[in-house]
């Protein structure tokens, strides 16, 4: 597994442990802590925050991914070459690209680990720093979703409904689990 995490994103240790445990059970999927969706609007595929009907993209803030997908990303496959060049040129959306590669290859959607996390926002005199605070950031992400569809010649993203929740944080009955089991719940 590769645990990819942004320098401004903090995930609690027990959530990382849970995510790794879940990933080991299905390494064909990206496992992550913040998810988004792809939706079709007016004949165009877009990036969306609405996940009521499922989700298909784990954002790059933090995720587990099998190293073989990074190996595939560096391969000489013609479509992968186009995707890699696209990411280099646009200087964004590598996470959308990786989600498209993994889902296209495995026909599986991601797994969402619900957990508390924190994003560190750096305040500058003229606003916040970071790509997500740049003008047209959402448009760039939507363009990337459509461009991945165009590269593959089909929608590569797979909608998932697999949500993992740390039950010991939500239910009072969790104290009944044996300590060895509770370590992952």
Feature tags:
185 residues, alpha+beta, 3-stranded antiparallel beta sheet
Q: What does this protein structure show overall?
A:
With 185 residues, the chain is of the alpha+beta class. The chain has helices spanning 13-25, 67-73, 78-90, 94-106, 137-152, 179-182; strands at residues 2-5, 9-11, 31-32, 35-41, 44-48, 57-58, 62-65, 111-114, 117-119, 123-124, 127-128, 163-165.
Summarize the structure.
With 185 residues, the protein is of the alpha+beta class.
Give the tally of β-strands.
12
Order of helices and strands: EEHEEEEEHHHEEEEHEH
Supply Rg: 17 Å
Helix content: 25-40%
Structural class label: alpha+beta
| Terminal residue distance | 20 Å
Biggest sheet details: 5 strands, mixed
Mean pLDDT, nearest integer?
85
As residue ranges, the low-confidence spans are 172-185
Coarse shape:
globular
Strand order within the widest sheet? Answer: 1-7-3-8-12
How large is the count of helical segments? 6
Strand content: 15-25%
Secondary-structure topology with pairs:
Elements: E1 2-5, E2 9-11, H1 13-25, E3 31-32, E4 35-41, E5 44-48, E6 57-58, E7 62-65, H2 67-73, H3 78-90, H4 94-106, E8 111-114, E9 117-119, E10 123-124, E11 127-128, H5 137-152, E12 163-165, H6 179-182
Parallel strand pairs: 3-8, 8-12
Antiparallel strand pairs: 1-7, 2-9, 3-7, 4-5, 4-6, 10-11
Helix pairs in contact: 4-5
């Amino acid at each position: 597994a590769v645990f990819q995490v942004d320098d401004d994103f903090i995930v609690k240790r027990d959530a990382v442990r849970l995510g790794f445990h879940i990933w080991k059970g299905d390494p064909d999927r990206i496992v992550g802590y913040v998810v988004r969706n792809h939706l079709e609007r007016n004949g165009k595929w877009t990036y969306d925050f609405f996940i009521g009907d499922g989700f298909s993209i784990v954002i790059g803030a933090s995720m587990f991914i099998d190293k073989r997908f990074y190996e595939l990303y560096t391969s000489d496959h013609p479509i992968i070459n186009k995707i890699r060049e696209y990411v280099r040129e646009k200087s964004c959306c590598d996470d959308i690209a990786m989600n498209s590669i993994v889902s296209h290859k495995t026909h599986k959607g991601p797994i969402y680990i619900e957990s508390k996390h924190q994003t560190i926002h750096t305040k500058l005199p003229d606003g916040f720093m970071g790509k997500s605070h740049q003008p047209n950031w959402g448009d760039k992400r939507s363009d990337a979703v459509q461009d991945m569809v165009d590269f593959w010649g089909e929608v590569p993203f797979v909608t998932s409904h697999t949500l993992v929740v740390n039950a010991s944080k939500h239910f009072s009955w969790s104290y009944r689990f044996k300590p060895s089991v509770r370590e992952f719940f």
